[in-house]
Design a protein that fits this description.
The chain is α+β, with helices and mostly antiparallel strands. The chain has a domain of 121 residues. It has two helices and nine strands; from the N terminus they run H-E-E-E-E-E-E-E-E-E-H. Strands 1, 2, 3, 4, 5, 6 and 9 form a seven-stranded antiparallel beta sheet that branches. The two termini are 31 Å apart. The structure holds zinc ion (ZN). The site of zinc ion (ZN) has 9 residues, from loops.
Length: 225
């Protein structure tokens, strides 16, 4: 009986942890989408730097920016400076791009790809926009975005950031739920099941018929009080 009680307690803990992780994942995606929806494109940058990376075969020009909201990272990578006039150049230096930045290797050195990453506190979702010079015109397309009217909603997962955010939000949810349960339990009268609130006054057994758990109520309470 005690062993069974212990197993079900473990099972409840695992279910609770899974439930919190699901809530954490939903929160992670929701927060990233709200940020993406409110800061859809370039503009309003809080900080910006540009630099050149030489990887042996080619030279990449990179624009790295954070928006004023500080929740969106923006990397524009191309074969040459596209907007030199707009950006303050810090000169040439060796920099490593974050792993999640997509570099478009195209035929033309005019091609560029812009990777934007969203999420808080860590960037968790991303989308990429490509601009390619074909013939006499420009072709733009996206990868990892849903187009929602004029907004781009990202859905490509940045695995380390996503896991970090899920853990953080799951912990917050666990704390909130535990607090709520504790408060509700404290407000329960002594004659009620301390787990589910079922009225145990006329029952002889210490096991709650509603939830099946041993009601941790004070046992020798006068019934019918
Ligand atoms: Zn109960």
């Amino acid at each position: 009986m005690a062993a069974r009680e212990r197993i079900s307690r473990w099972r409840r803990a695992i279910i609770f942890a899974c439930f919190c992780c699901v809530l954490g994942a939903i929160t992670t995606v929701g927060v990233a989408w709200v940020i993406a929806f409110r800061a859809p494109g370039p503009g309003g940058y809080a900080s910006m730097r540009s630099y050149t990376i030489r990887d042996g075969a080619s030279t990449w020009f990179v624009i790295e920016a954070r928006t004023k909201r500080r929740c969106v990272s923006h990397y524009e990578v191309s074969g040459r400076p596209l907007r030199t006039l707009e950006y303050k150049s810090e000169g040439f230096r060796d920099v490593r791009l974050p792993d999640w930045v997509s570099v478009q290797v195209g035929e033309s050195w005019l091609n560029s790809s812009t990777t934007r990453a969203y999420g808080y506190p860590v960037r968790a979702l991303k989308g990429v926009e490509f601009i390619e010079h074909q013939g006499s015109g420009w072709v733009a397309w996206q990868r990892g975005y849903w187009v929602c009217r004029t907004r781009l909603i990202p859905f490509h997962v940045i695995v380390p950031g996503f896991i970090a955010n899920v853990v953080i939000y799951a912990a917050i949810w666990a704390g909130v739920i535990a607090m709520a349960q504790w408060t509700r339990r404290r407000l329960r009268p002594a004659w009620a099941c301390q787990h589910c609130g079922y009225d145990l006054r006329s029952l002889p057994s210490a096991v709650c018929p509603e939830c099946g758990r041993v009601a941790r109520s004070r046992p020798n309470e006068p019934s019918g009080a």
